[in-house]
Amino acid sequence: MSENLQKRYGFWTAVAMVVGIVIGSGIFFKAEKVLQATGGNMLLGVFSWIISGGIMIVCAYTFANLASRYEKVNGLVDYAEASLGKTYGYVVGWFMATIYAPVLAAVLSWVSAKYTAALFGIGDPGSNIQVYLIAVFYMVVIYILNMIAPILAGKFQVSTTFIKLIPLVLMAVVGLIKGLSTGQTIENFKYVTHDLTSNPLFTSIVATAFAYEGWIVATTINAELKDSRKNLPRALLVGTSIIIVVYVLYFLGLTSSMSINDFIGGGESSIRQAFSNTLGSIGGSTLFIFVVISCLGTLNGLSLSCIRGIYSLSARNMGPVPKFFSKINKKTGVPVNSGVVAFFIIIGWLIAWYGSFNGWWGLFLDFSELPVVTMYALYIPIFIWTMRVMKDLNFFQRFIVPIAAIIGSLFMIFATFIAHGYKAVLIYIAIFLIIIIVGLLFNFTSKKKSL
Q1: Helix 422-450 and helix 370-389, axial crossing angle in degrees, nearest 10
Q2: How far apart are CA 241 and CA 218, in angstroms?
Q3: Region of 85 on the Ramachandran plot (φ > 0 left; ψ -120 to 50 alpha; else beta)
Q4: What domains are there in the chain, each with its CATH number?
Q5: Chain-centre distance of CA 39, in angstroms?
Q6: Ramachandran area for residue 419 (φ above 0: left; ψ -120 to 50: alpha; else beta)
Q7: pLDDT tens for residues 128-137?
């Protein structure tokens, strides 16, 4: 319980925690997509990072005000349960346990394999089976690490938190300075766009949303934060603002290393080439290895969440067979049964991701982005509840910020329909609803047996 935890962290420690939690592998994965989506339009690309980041800020600030008044709250499931009841809390928890976290873990295992393949010159990461075999290998290793040696997995997580900042900072500083000195940065901003996607702004904004994911986790640090009512909103505001600046500078530094035509034409190897152009062949390859390690670090954190996903519901006596999934290994303290099932769910989503590249769905379903935007849809009822219930907040906190968060969330949903097309989104919604209905049936059955 939060009241039993020591209030040991000050404002700047909280800011550092927010930055560390949010910054992950998404920036490496999506920077190239933003440039491709905008057809090389640098202003449009930078604008996309700022807009998506701004939506993150108002949503995070809204949740910060909620978290600072409910210090027993330790996650989004609890926010959902407090606002709309246990059933809604369960739906959010089931979504996170079976769709959100496993999908992101599957995509991150593929991203890690994709950049590994780029190091060794292995073909198209979308359909090349070797890339997926590497992804499965990474997933197995990370899972074994978390299931058998959770302490070692924790140390790996801490070390990768530092490592992931190295390529970001170096490319942001060195890349931008070099680009400005050679004139490449200015030249890229003058680039005349020729090949745009059908909806470049919406496509790039939805893509950047993936890179900003993780901010909701940052709202849970209030339990150990001094004067959390004051410091948590401020820490989230400052921390998320720093993240936007870092992401924009990295994007500028990365794209300043070569011409827009070369970057877009380079395909999967463009980021590695950008690193090499900025820091030399050896420095670029070393930095690219850091990117792979960073991705694996993010995958490690997601795996930790996946392992505990179904368990967190079972601990509330909810979901399928609560007694079975609530069991914890006495030696490691890990919910093994929950973890094993989650592993196969991740593999299932990895297969679905492979199917997207190979036309199984009749079109490309971007599972890296669709579940992320689903979260924004799930936030909206909580934002409305905040305005209705939080009478102790001032007018700005109670109404202006939540309304801005609702508008931002609706914009994300609208942008998703435009960017991905109605057919793709409707197929995803159908899959989402089927999985949610199955989860509700499991929960109904469990309740019936417990009576």
Answers
A1: 60
A2: 14
A3: left
A4: 2-450 (1.20.1740.10)
A5: 24
A6: alpha
A7: 889 999 999 9
How many other CB atoms are there within 10 angstroms of residue 159's CB atom? Answer: 12
**CB contact set of 237 (below 8 Å; sequence gap of 6+):** 57, 60, 61
Give the whole-angstrom CA distance, residue 416 versus residue 248.
22
The pLDDT of residue 147: 87
* pLDDT for the residue 100: 92
Q: Are 184 and 256 within 8 A, CB to CB?
A: yes
Q: List CB contacts of 258: < 8 A, sequence separation 6 or more.
A: 184, 266, 270, 273, 274, 277
DSSP 361-390: TSS---TTTHHHHHHHHHHHHHHHHHHHH-
Separation between Cα atoms, residue 256 and residue 184, nearest integer Å: 6
Pair of tokens at residue 344: 């196969």
Please identify which residue in the block is written with the tokens 């603002």.
241
Q: What is the pLDDT of residue 193?
A: 65
CA Rg, the chain, in Å?
A: 21
Q: For residue 124, what pLDDT is reported?
A: 66
Helix (H) or strand (E) holding 82: helix 76-84
Name which of 292, 295, 324 is nearest 310 in CA terms. 324
Nearest in space to 59 (alpha carbons), one of 212, 249, 227, 207: 212
Given a contact cutoff of 8 angstroms between Cβ atoms, the answer to whether 254 and 171 are in contact is yes
pLDDT reported for residue 87: 92
Tracing tokens 């993936």 back to the chain, one arrives at: 210
Backbone angles phi, psi at 9, to 5 degrees: -100, 135
Count other C-beta atoms under 10 Å from residue 347's C-beta. 18
Q: pLDDT value at position 194?
A: 58
Which residues in the chain come in under a pLDDT of 70? 1-8, 68, 70-75, 123-126, 192-198, 218-224, 266-268, 448-451
Q: Residue 133 contacts by C-beta under 8 Å, 6 or more apart in sequence?
A: none
Say which DSSP state 269 is in. G
